[in-house]
Design a protein that fits this description.
By secondary structure, the chain is of the alpha/beta class. It has one domain: P-loop containing nucleotide triphosphate hydrolases (Rossmann fold, 3-Layer(aba) Sandwich). About 55% of the residues lie in helices and about 15% in strands. The chain has eight helices and five strands, in the order E-H-E-H-H-E-H-H-E-H-H-E-H. The protein has helices at about 15-25, 40-50, 60-85, 95-105, 110-120, 135-140, 155-170, 185-200; strands at about 1-5, 30-35, 85-90, 125-130, 175-180. The protein has a five-stranded parallel sheet with strand order 2-3-1-4-5, sandwiched between helices. Helix 1 (about 15-25) packs across helix 8, helix 2 (about 40-50) runs antiparallel to helix 3 (about 60-85) and helix 4 crosses helix 7 (about 155-170). The protein starts with a strand and ends with a helix.
Length: about 200
Amino acid sequence: MFIALEGGEGAGKSTLAAALEERLRAQGRDVVLTREPGGTDLGDIVSGMVRHRQGLTPRAELLLFEAARAQHVQDVIRPALERGDIVLCDRFTASTVAYQGYGRKLPLREIAQANRMAAGGAAPALTLLLDLPPDTGLRRDTTDPAGDRLRGERAAFHERVRRGYLAQAAADPERWLVIDATQPREAVLEAAWARIQALL
């Protein structure tokens, strides 16, 4: 099973992913916990470039993310799924739609084409969207906004990203679960866990 965790800055994706991994392993399941951008050496390089290099155009940013994704799917995600592992991925193609599509205002058709090419057929069975107002998430996030291009974007950008996520969730409710991320961590975990157990 392939599960993606999505949400804006400071939503708590990494915290939830680690808690889900712990519970799944306690059931005796094999789990791969990974993230985008990252998860591979190329992904780590791309992450640093996109977060910190000034002057990147929106399309350059998009293509860097997609290059990292193609490598990630080949090296990490597909082999894990072929072994029968459960993959928990902190961000996947929905992030590209939300950030580069809605946030950067690139054409959604171009985003869809790039995502299809990079993902090579890999698609989450479930996407958990941790939803909260952007200003709440940004207050939670301890990253220095001065050194992070995405974190330091204006409020309007982060509002568009949130709308992009919610639009995707509304279009595919069977494969998405929207969780109110302003709740206590335990409530967020229990909501996600109930949905995953139903699928398993």
